[in-house]
Amino acid sequence: MQCYVYRASRRADTYVYLPEKDDFSDLPEGVMRALGNLEFALEFELTPERTLAREDPQKVLANLKEQGFHLQFPPPEDERQP
Fold it and tell me: Taking the mean position of all CA atoms in its chain, how far away is CA 81?
């Protein structure tokens, strides 16, 4: 599945994954307001075997199929690199 990733302007290290480029129709209005402007960051082919830096690819795929988007939040403070 082709995947499109957007960076949130109001929340540092927060990203939105979408299955269709620039199609924000499945994002709830409250989420859109909280995230601010979404800036295109990258596009890639997402498969269950693909390694992602901070997400489980199978979870991302499931969210894309079930709800039409996936949110990636920053790691908790105790997991961040110094």
Answer: 21
